[in-house]
Write a structure and sequence with these properties.
Number of strands: 0
Helix content: over 70%
Oligomer: single chain
Radius of gyration: 18 Å
Order of helices and strands: HHHHHHHH
Amino acid sequence: MEGTNPVNKKLAAALSGGAVLVLALSGCSSGGDNSDAKLDSWAKQVCVAVQPQAKKIAAANTAIQKETSDNSTPEEVQKTDSQAFQDMSDAYKAIGAAVNSAGAPDVDNGAKKQQDAVKELNDISTSYAALKKQVDGLNTKDQAKFADGLKGIATSLDKLSTSGNDALKTLEEGDVGKAMTKQEACKSASASASSSAS
């Protein structure tokens, strides 16, 4: 069994980077208290929608990390990772839908920032769905092939967790970020995401 675990550890490390994306949308920036009511209401709508999805992503992270620490069979690893990637794909899609339905925030270039963030969230969702397919296709009967396959997935995850949250960062710059930091739902969403990333 020793072939799987180091690789799955790499997978878990790469995955915890994915939680950072949620942090970007969970209003982690600090700032003053001078945003307006319209922006506050926009932030509240997004934060309330993001909160359960952040928890879902955190739970998926935890599941993969638990599978890593256990002496799991390739079949167990495959099943857990597949479900985790599916959950993450669904969660990012739901966050994208929430940002989309909230409309453009009341800031300069709000509509462009919102559209870019929605596109990015949907792209991330698609990437996790592709990773799920990749995991489902791994050969669990051959230990070496399975470990190699996981290595490839870990590399893709690494890329996914380091790229792809620029539009989210842009969306929550300035007044949007300030409005989000005031929302209880955003605070708890970022707490659950950061605890899973640690």
